[in-house]
Amino acid sequence: MTLVQNKSSILKKAFVSSLVSKVVSFSFQIFSVPILITFLGTAGFGLYSTLITIFGWVFLISGGINPGVTRVVARKGITPNALKTIDIAKRISLLFIFLILVCVLIAKLTSSSNNIYLFDAQHVLLLFCLSAPIIYLSLTDSIRQGMNEQHYNNLWATAATFISVVFIAFLPFWELEQHQAIACVILIMYSPLVLTKLANTWQLSHRDSKLSLFTLMPKSRSNQRLFKALIAVATANLIIQLSVTINKSAVMVFLANTDLNEAAKLEIAFRYFLIAGTFFATIQQPLWPLIIQAIKNREISWMQKVKKKIFAFYVAYSIALMIILQFFGVQIFNIWSNNNLAFSLFELQLIGAYFITIAINQASIVLLMGYSAFAFIGKALIVESLVLVMLLISPLFESTFADVLTALLLARFFTSSIILWLGVNKREAKYVG
Length: 433
What we know:
Number of helices: 15
Distance between the termini: 29 Å
Strand content: under 5%
Shape: globular
Number of strands: 2
Number of domains: 1
Helix content: over 70%
Radius of gyration: 22 Å
Order of helices and strands: HHHHEEHHHHHHHHHHH
Largest sheet: 2 strands, antiparallel
């Protein structure tokens, strides 16, 4: 099998399995949102969504470290250096999980009530206990991605989503107080992920015991060099994830402090972006390791074709969705929220316009990841986050859903969308030349 045929085979496996995963995920989001809003109440849904958003800071650990592991495995396979890199990643993950636990406990002990900020302390601790193993076991996903086995990750993710769907189907028959209801939803959403990631990790380690996440290698001096290299890549990825987390958590907290109903509308918008963006993830996850390999092998014509197709497909797709929102968006969002939240046509136009900027950014990012330009991506997105925060604290924008979306749109379009696109062109010119 030729190199091009092998790439095509890998992409087909990843695409088909990812398509199945995304269809299930799409069905889950459509099916779960009206049930969750009714089960938790609009304010309860807004509170739960804000908690999950803020807890996104915890997942910065895996978002920073894992792409570094994928990069090492994708470049040279499972070599002794790759195994050492994986071992270092395990230690870093465990250290940061411990530090986060300390921070959560300090926040609880220093609180004068049973709450940590707006949230019940028990909910925060429960969410941490479920998030910690998910973060650590996500290393398996990064290893498989580097080995061109993304289809395994997709299938296990599908299983987790399916389990959550089954339990959510029973929520309309339960009547719980808001405190118990939020705890119940957290368990339903996160427990299946813990189980399926454990299963994925066991499957990989059963096939090759050297890849087990349940053991650590003896320390050696050579690990220091690999540690520095991994930290460099992890820091760049951390900045990327940090900007995304700042963007979402800043706007959610901005609204939650004044109106939980507006925060609930924003969560619906973010879920729409997640659903609509599954197309990007389907392509992106298996593609960027292949771009790394193509750059290494100087496959210039293949790279140029990929760039043209990525931008054309992503932008055309996002424009098509905006047209759908223009004509059918009000009815779709009213049905989706079970008529608990009302969206105006102007708000839906803002949602559609913002998703176009998401498409442009994602097309640039997948290519820049292939060029290993993680630090550049991070810097561009941090600029966007800083501009967003400045807009939110300015007197120009009020604590309304429409104003927040406008701030998000302006901050992204005039910063990261332009910077990332220019970065792709600059690196392509250097690579071709």
